[in-house]
User: Fold this.
Amino acid sequence: MHERELFDETLDINSTNNYDISIQVSLNGFSFSLLDTLRNRFVMLREYTLNGREPELSSQLKDISDKDEFIGKPYRKYRVIFSFERSTIVPSALYDPALKDEYFTLNHILPPESVVSNNKLPEPDAYLLFDLRSDLLDEVCRIFPEATLSHQARPLLFDSFISAGKQTGRYLRANIEDSYFNIIAISGKKLEFYNTFRYRNSSDILYFYPYQGAFRPVRAPLKADFLFREQRPPQGSQAKRDAGTGRVSFAGFCSLFVRT
Assistant:
């Protein structure tokens, strides 16, 4: 059974032809959001908790797709986002698709059961490489054959460049997941720094933030995707708010609400 659900009072299971569905898959969770394109508002968020065992991801997704009443419905557009730790960026001027495995293994170990996938980034002018288990990729393509597939860094970078363009000076952003976090630095419409780090506690994050890469050491405002999402959530009666804050907790769902 799903662990968390928020929905708008206008949600209609018989009107999914007018909805865009965004799906996010990680080691610990499967979630999806529905965007009503006629009303231009998100009408649903649903989350399932997974057991964190990578070899069992594909079978868990199959179980969810067999039982969830919304998964098999027809949608206007499908998008699947993979929220996993390993990724790397290669400038377009250097990129050769025949060498994508070699590029990836310069920074990461490629498990024998995995394949390297890629996304073209609009900004910076580069390719984002990431690995997926073959059985997981096959199952996702079976459930959502019309979906575009991307790593979570793609919408994260897309949204970061939009936000950076609205301010002067250096833009810093941290996206914090269950066991790792991404740091992005943008200055003058150019990506200065992008990297991923594992962490055990908040002290690890505070260590990496001011002393890494192109911005060591520096004092600058930091946008963090951690406790509360800035996007407006569904407004129906099921929107559970944190006591005393009036805000809905959207930790871990950053990519689902970025329109790329």
